[in-house]
Amino acid sequence: MSTAPSVENITLGDLYADPYPAYRRLRMEAPVAWVPAARIHLVTRFDDIIAIERDAGTFPALDLRSLQIKAMGHTLMRKDGEDHKRERALLEPTFRPGTVKNHWEPIFARIADELIDGFAERGEADIFAEFAAPLASRCLMEILGLTNVDWRDLIGWSQSLMDAVGNYGDDPDVWAKGLAASQAIDAALDERIPQLKANPDPSVVSAMANAAEPLTIDQIRANVKVIVGGGLNEPRDATCTALYGLLRNPAQLTQVLADDGRWKDVFEEAVRWVAPIGMYPRRVARTVELGGAILEPDDQIGLVVASACHDETRFEDGHLFDINRKRAPHLAFGSGPHFCLGTWAARKQVGDIAVPNILRRLPNLRLDPDREARLGGWVFRGLLNLPVKWDA
Ligand code: HEM
């Protein structure tokens, strides 16, 4: 048993509604805390998370109890050392800034334009459902190479897999849906792998299937599933959060519309302000002191990057959306060996294309005064809807 203080008065309901007040309290009073409601130790300070990510020997990603392994197979996200490096290296060319710019950018821009064409004349829409989610899904189909599926199905599979990864209550229906999603993805892969072997392209599946030392089919399937689970909701949520931040702060909106050089700041500030992945787990491999607590082997810790992104030692008034804040590294993409592979693809899709294009094409875009935008979640957090109006 660790010596971390047990913090009983944080409920899952509090965390879902708005986790930031609880994170602030934890940073001040118990930066490494056992939170019974979440059944995990939460690590909430920026510097402690950096220290963990620099020491994979003490805090490995591999945990055989992981529900991610049960739901998706053994993905690169739950591997360490050489095993992890080899699989990550195979995927890197797909996600390089050069590939993103030369290959993915025109594809992402075409999809964004087609979606905006679909509602530009209407004067109102839910940006979450009609733009951010289909854009993220259709871009992900291309990145993966799963162009043989329907984007609506991909959204459903992604959700079912993520629900299974978070199925701590062991609900059999959740496992059944996760398994069905998994089987549907395997079937789509069985169709696409021979095609991509015959005609290689820069996609994820092509990279893995055509490697000089190819991965096994189980490794390919697991890695595709982790990207289906982790590469869809995050760009969707970053798009909505960036727009929501700007629409609630008209002076900043005016500023970016007058200066194309500022879109990058909008993107980085949005993911810092409301990190799409709020928390991810690591395992403790040996007895270690962290944040005033002694942790023991096999303790499970949650790295609360959403909290680190509001840590007052790094960010002044972190709860405010402010594109003019002093630039400083944030942890929304993680850090260390598992630093998000999709960072450049997300920056391109969201920061360079989705957010500027929608604001340029929908004049006088504003939040719908009659329909409230709502936020939810803590392990994953974002807008649940984003109703807007514009002058059509
Ligand atoms: C704003 C959007 C995104 C955010 C905030 C985000 C965040 C993260 C974070 C925090 C991690 C580290 C997780 C851990 O260490 O356990 C991660 C890893 C990863 N992300 Fe992203 N992500 C985003 C978009 C994407 C996209 C679009 C893709 C792919 C299409 C992607 C693919 C991956 C992969 C493959 C990993 C695992 C890397 C490894 O284990 O070496 N991400 N992401």
Automatic annotation (TrEMBL):
Gene3D superfamilies reported for this sequence: Cytochrome P450
Keywords noted in UniProt: Heme, Iron, Metal-binding, Monooxygenase, Oxidoreductase
Family annotation (InterPro entries): Cyt_P450 (IPR001128), Cyt_P450_B (IPR002397), Cyt_P450_CS (IPR017972), Cyt_P450_sf (IPR036396)
Domain of life (superkingdom): Bacteria
Swiss-Prot/TrEMBL cofactor(s): heme
Pfam families, per the entry: p450
Signal sequence residues: none
SUPFAM superfamilies hit by this protein: Cytochrome P450 (SSF48264)
PROSITE patterns: CYTOCHROME_P450
Molecular function terms, GO-annotated: heme binding; iron ion binding; monooxygenase activity; oxidoreductase activity, acting on paired donors, with incorporation or reduction of molecular oxygen
Protein family according to the UniProt entry: Belongs to the cytochrome P450 family.
Protein name per Swiss-Prot or TrEMBL: Cytochrome P450
Record lineage: Bacteria, Pseudomonadati, Pseudomonadota, Alphaproteobacteria, Hyphomicrobiales
